[in-house]
């Protein structure tokens, strides 16, 4: 199903200056560390490789990757205000030479030649808000052969369980019939994905699905705990290391993936 970009762009530009605040707090910072941990397993080791951060917004992942030494990162997003914030953040950290912030549509990456990038990723579940099929076609085109493409998707199972728990019969039917989830927090609709939907989408694109992971596996637990208690749980490095090792096990557990907030697909262009 194809979705219109207009409402998505309008809303992301509207709350661009608040966006990074959603990733404050020790648990949300930990989620960023999880995302970087997942990416690091598949990123090429040479720091000069070309990396596409598709729908990268304010550079929440591009900037820490640049801090790790990667020097050729392209952060593409439709929301111009979010990109400008990213540029400002990168400038303050003296990383402007390592990251290019580019206003663009991830379903139409015409500014890039075929086989341009060594590694492509799209986090932030942008594929739930756009024409995912067209985006994957573009990721395939601009990524080099044997290159990894790492994607995340809104989890159908998690939202279905939440709606059933809230006895929201209307939205349960809509999600079951059309795969559409209407969040009270957004003006736009999203497409939620089951694992089999992701596999079918990737198969249709001609890419190879290597692995499926859960992301934000402990959200259902930490979202119910007072923020001060959460911050205490992540007080020191030993605590963070413990939860990171736990997440590594849970994200690989097939029985736990449907309980995760998002689903990650590790894909390769053959």
Largest sheet: 7 strands, mixed
Quick one: CATH class? Alpha Beta
Structural class estimated from helices and strands:
alpha/beta
Name of the CATH architecture: 3-Layer(aba) Sandwich
Going by CATH, the homologous superfamily would be Vaccinia Virus protein VP39
As an assembly, this protein is single chain
Share of residues in strands: 15-25%
Low-confidence stretches: none
H and E string = HHHEHEHEEHEHHEEHEHHHE
| Whole-number count of domains | 1
Helix tally equals: 12
What does this structure look like?
This protein has about 270 residues and is α/β, with parallel strands linked by helices. The protein has a single domain (about 5-155, about 190-270), classed as Rossmann fold (3-Layer(aba) Sandwich). It has helices at about 5-15, 15-20, 25-40, 60-65, 80-90, 130-140, 155-165, 170-180, 195-205, 220, 225-235, 235-250, and strands at about 50-55, 75, 100-105, 115-120, 145-155, 180, 190, 210-215, 260-270. A seven-stranded mixed β-sheet has the order 3-2-1-4-5-9-8, sandwiched between helices. A two-stranded antiparallel ribbon has the order 6-7. The longest helix has 16 residues, at about 235-250. The protein is globular and about 50 Å long.
